[in-house]
Structures are given as C-alpha cells and as structure tokens.
Amino acid sequence: MITMFHILAALGAICGLVAGAVFGARLFGWSGTIVGAVLGACVGLWLGRLPGIISTRMLICSIRRKTTNELREIVKSDQFYSFHLILAELTARGESIQQERQHVLKLLDSSVYPERVCGWQTVRAFYPEVASQIAQYHPKDSVEVCRRITQHLTGSV
Q1: pTM attached to this predicted model
Q2: What is the radius of gyration, based on Cα positions, of the chain?
Q3: How far apart are CA 105 and CA 154, in angstroms?
Q4: Within 13 Å and on the Cβ side, how many CA atoms surround 105?
Q5: What are phi and psi of 44, to 5 degrees?
Q6: End-to-end distance of the chain based on CA atoms, in angstroms?
Q7: Where are the domains of the chain?
Q8: How many CA atoms lie within 13 A of 11 on its CB side?
Q9: So what's the pLDDT on residue 78?
C-alpha cells in the first residue's frame, strides 16, 4: 500500500537528484553531474522521509501517554491500523493481550481488504498459536473464503 509518506520520499529523491545534478554540473561538469545526482538523491530521500519518521514518532509517543484502559478501548474501536502498536505497548507494559484477541480476529472476517491485512499481520505477530491454526489464511482471498477458514475461531476464543 502506497501512502503519502512514500510519495513524499519519492518526490524528495527525485527533486534531490535533479537539483544535485544541476548543481554538480554547474560546478564540476559531467563528473559533477553524476556525483551531484547521487548525493542529491540521497539527501532528497532523507528529507522526504522525515515527515513519515516524525509522524510515526508522534503516534508512538501519543500511544505511550495513554492509560491501559484507553488503549484497550482503541482496540475495541475501528482504528484497526494501530492495533499492532497498541498490542505492542500493552505487551511492553506487561499486560495480557488475550482479551483483545477477539477484536483482532474480527478483522480477519472483514469485507474490507486493508482490515484483513492488518488483522492477519497482527495475528501473526501477537497470536502465533492462532496463526498456525489458520496457516492457509490469506487476506487476498475472497471474503467468503476468509470467513470459512476462520469460522471455527469464533467459538474457540
């Protein structure tokens, strides 16, 4: 999945490459063009990735400031894209994450593909025993296939 942060990084690299090539050519000719393009692309990529790095850090700091109950409430909500971060924080705090398992498993049956992907990645990371029970599961399969594979988990959780 491509996000705006990927686009910013790519644009940064492209702009850096062009700027470096132009600057290098003016100062050192053809050899400066090549060196300037490479250095410019590296610097541009680094600058283009900064917004993504900063926003990720801010999200993690925000999660760390929340109480355990607030984190558990997030897992009960529809903010599926942050479940793995929430579960990681709860685990780091020494909390049990077994009561959140049902909410994560609901994502596997979702009719929305990104929810199934996040659910599957979270299950594999935090509930490997469940992932081994449904090793044939793949989020790209149809909703019906995904539901058929995971239907036995509903009663066992």
Answers
A1: 0.76
A2: 22
A3: 8
A4: 23
A5: -65, -40
A6: 30
A7: 1-65, 67-156
A8: 9
A9: 83
- CA dist., res. 1 & res. 112, Å (int): 14
Q: pLDDT digit string (tens) for 45-75?
A: 999 999 999 999 999 999 999 999 999 999 9
Nearest 5°: phi and psi at 15? -60, -40
Please state, in angstroms and as integers, the Cα–Cα distance from residue 113 to each residue in 1, 80, 109, following that order.
11, 12, 10
What are the helix (H) ranges across the chain?
4-65, 68-76, 83-92, 101-108, 113-126, 128-133, 143-156
- Alpha-carbon distance of 69 to 119, in angstroms, equals 21
| Assigned token pair, 11 | 């644009």
122, amino acid identity:
T
